[in-house]
Write a structure and sequence with these properties.
heterodimer; A: FAD/NAD(P)-binding domain; Enolase-like, domain 1; five-stranded antiparallel sheet; four-stranded parallel sheet; B: alpha+beta; two-stranded antiparallel sheet; 4 strands; globular
């Protein structure tokens, strides 16, 4: 496995669980590997949890996998020689390769050294150290990660401004009414929004916007999304800017699979390639890849799931929202404590997605309906 | 098998309940409820599926 995050580790686990007794090597370039990323924007950032609590597997289980860890950065792949080349000069031969190198935060041309991103534990620790009460934090990018950090920052007593180029961010991910409610929640908790705004420059203590106005910023977080870590695959034809291309068994080439945030696989139910950066998918896809490596694979057709937590609100989503489809209210009250909205496929009105606001218990019924009605 | 839950880490996805309803339930807010902390060996496969699928990695088992 190249990549020691959730996908890499859970592929190793899946292989052992299915009785594979051969050698497994896990190559990862993060010094603190095998931790879980979702808490980094939440409990680890606020300090509620120590970093050690965000582990993927308890230490005994990790040791029990009998995996050879190589702390190294993959630099190249030689498929003909079945070898991964690492930056420290290592050559790692394989019979089966799993590409699980994930993604890295995108940056902007104006960003300076002092601008933060948030992907790794080191990023979270650096950001946490900068988050003192009264500090003015500017978050560039109104995505789910940016907003989770906004919530954490407000809880720590920072002043927060979120700057976003879109006028209606997150409408495609949550549905317009849910996105509106979520921004409203943040506004109620003191976050300022500059929507339809573009940053041009970082200047001392502020961000200069394209309309010449300023946003006060002692600290800056760039949270505009991520790009797949596929540079090391240059020249192999296996990947492009949207990750490693795979079939419905998550195979990229003979003897080569991909799993997790880096994988764009053919989803049999959706009928197209898709790449998602969801924690749930990392482990589920890893299990599927482990099965396929051992000749026991099935087409990988998950019902996609993500969750995002903001203050006391838990948002959960099952399925894929079709473009330009308006949600219907399925239960609860859009302005109330909890609700569920659903999305139907325009051609045949099948339920294809559901988004819940503080409705975790109710979501399983919608998941089941999405599963039951799909092609 | 003896099952343990790290209640604090649960994110209420309901995945464990879907995979092994005999052992895992959900409270009103959707968080995991351990219905049987010493289930029989016939449930091992389903329990291991639940452990592996938990997106918060908050279930563990001994034995």
């Amino acid at each position: 496995m190249v990549g020691s995050g959730a996908a890499g580790v859970m592929t190793a686990h899946g292989l052992r669980r299915r009785g594979f007794t051969g050698r497994i090597a896990l190559i990862g370039d993060e010094p603190a590997h095998t931790y879980d990323r979702p808490p980094l924007s939440k409990q680890v950032l606020t300090g509620e949890w120590p970093a050690s609590k965000a582990r993927l597997l308890p230490a005994e289980r990790l040791d029990g996998l009998e995996v050879e860890f190589a702390a190294a950065r993959a630099e190249a792949l030689e498929p003909a020689a079945r070898s991964v080349i690492t930056a420290d000069g290592g050559r790692h031969a394989y019979d089966a390769l799993v590409i699980a190198t994930g993604v890295r935060p995108r940056r902007l041309s104006w960003s300076t050294q002092d601008c933060h991103v948030l992907r790794t534990l080191a990023d979270a620790e650096g950001l946490r150290a900068a988050m003192r009460p009264g500090t003015r934090l500017a978050i560039v990018g109104c995505g789910l990660l940016g907003l989770e950090v906004a919530a954490s920052a407000r809880r720590l007593g920072l002043a927060v401004t979120v700057i976003e180029t879109l006028e209606t961010p997150l409408a495609d991910r949550l549905g317009a009414p849910v996105a509106k409610r979520l921004l409203g929640l943040h506004r109620d908790r003191g976050v300022e929004f500059r929507l339809g705004a573009t940053v041009e420059a970082r200047e001392p203590g502020l961000l200069r916007l394209a309309d010449r106005s300023e946003v006060a910023a002692d600290e800056v977080l760039i949270a505009i999304g991520c790009e797949p870590n596929v540079d090391w695959l240059d020249g192999t034809g296996l990947a492009d800017a949207d990750g490693v291309a795979c079939d419905e068994f998550c195979r990229a080439a003979p003897g080569i699979w991909a799993a997790g945030d880096v994988a764009r696989w053919h989803h049999p139910s959706l009928g197209r390639g898709i790449r998602v950066e969801h924690r749930m998918n990392a482990a589920e896809q890893a299990a599927g890849v482990a099965a396929d490596i051992l000749g026991e694979g099935e087409p990988y057709a998950p019902i996609l799931f993500f969750w995002t937590d903001h203050h006391e609100v838990k948002i959960q989503a099952w399925g894929v929202i079709p473009p330009q489809v308006e949600p219907e209210l399925a239960e609860g009250d859009l302005d109330g404590e909890s609700f569920v909205v659903t999305f139907a496929e325009p051609t045949d009105r099948r339920l294809v997605a559901a988004v819940g606001w503080n409705s975790a218990r109710a979501m399983s019924a919608y998941r089941a309906e999405i599963a039951a009605t799909r092609r | 098998m003896k099952i343990a839950i790290d209640q604090e880490s649960c994110i209420a996805s309901g995945t464990c309940t879907a995979l092994c309803p005999e052992v895992f339930g959900q409270d009103d807010e959707g968080y995991v409820l351990l219905l049987d902390d010493e289930p029989g060996p016939e449930l091992r496969e389903k329990i291991e599926d639940a452990i592996d699928s938990c997106p918060a990695a908050c279930i563990s088992a001994d034995g």
